[in-house]
Amino acid sequence: MKHSFLDQYSEGNSLIHRLDPRTKLITTLFFILVVVLTPVSRWQAFALYFILVATLIIISRVPPLYVLKRSLLIIPFVVLIAVFIPFFKEGEVAGSYNIWLWQVTVTHSGIQVFLNILAKSWLSILSLILLTAATRFSSLLRGMEQLRLPRVMVMILSFMYRYIFVLVDEVMRMKQARDSRNLGGGHLRQIRTVGNMIGTLFIRSYERGERVYAAMMARGFDGQTRTLENPSFVQRDFLFALALGLVLVLAIVLNLWYL
């Protein structure tokens, strides 16, 4: 079966696509660091960061709707974690509500922190989606290895990339088999069937992992990531990193200036 949910737009020929993976990794991490360290009240800076990310998305020619849909898939998890902050953050009361036997209070500072977390998370997610959409995953792994990131982490990501498609195929086959044998039933029966599928999938994945590990060790696997291309740091990487770095440093200076 064909799956294109990872490298769907990684074969482009834009400026972002032609950059060295190490350049994209370093600049993305620096961008996320600057976003995270921006004070809560600096909404002008967040607008600047959004314009910067949107410009890079347009330059990369990755469909903006694709990036937006991917980011909206992750935002609910951020909301689930941060939704309680407005109720527990101390400060000026914005509203008080009675829910059954409890009285909950929302503060202005709590709402501000909540919105700040959403903005920072969304900007970071957009930058990471752009990174993975404009870079082949194998090249990304190669860049991580050249940056001397922990080999165990690179190996885990490599195995995930290689076998997530096999895992998806396995799930689709199990779903097709379940649907062909489904004779109806209540919600309890459906939940029990899904639970059995998850258990079976876990066992099959574990057994497949053992077989793959034994086969790779028998063939002399040494833990290194190998690609057909050997990316190199050229002038456009330096100019791109310099331009983006200057913009972010300027944003940092302005944030410190108006503290």
Condensed summary:
By secondary structure, this protein is mainly alpha-helical. The chain has 10 helices and 2 strands.
SSE layout and pairing:
Elements: H1 15-18, H2 21-37, H3 43-60, H4 64-82, H5 85-88, E1 93-99, E2 102-107, H6 108-133, H7 137-146, H8 151-181, H9 187-218, H10 235-257
Give the tags:
259 residues, mainly alpha, 2 domains, two-stranded antiparallel ribbon, 2 strands, 71% helix, flat
Structure in words:
- This protein is 71% helix and 5% strand.
- With 259 residues, it is mainly alpha-helical.
- The protein has 2 domains: 15-147 and 229-257, no CATH class; 151-218, no CATH class.
- Helix 3 (43-60) packs parallel to helix 6 (108-133).
- The model has no long low-confidence stretch (mean pLDDT 81).
Secondary structure: helix percent: over 70%
How many DSSP helices?
10
Main beta sheet = 2 strands, antiparallel
Count of strand segments: 2
The rough form would be described as flat
Q: Give the topology string: H per helix, E per strand.
A: HHHHHEEHHHHH
Instruction: Name the quaternary structure.
Output: single chain
State the end-to-end distance: 55 Å
Strand order within the widest sheet? 1-2
The chain-level mean pLDDT equals 81
User: Strand pairing plus helix content: what structural class?
Assistant: mainly alpha
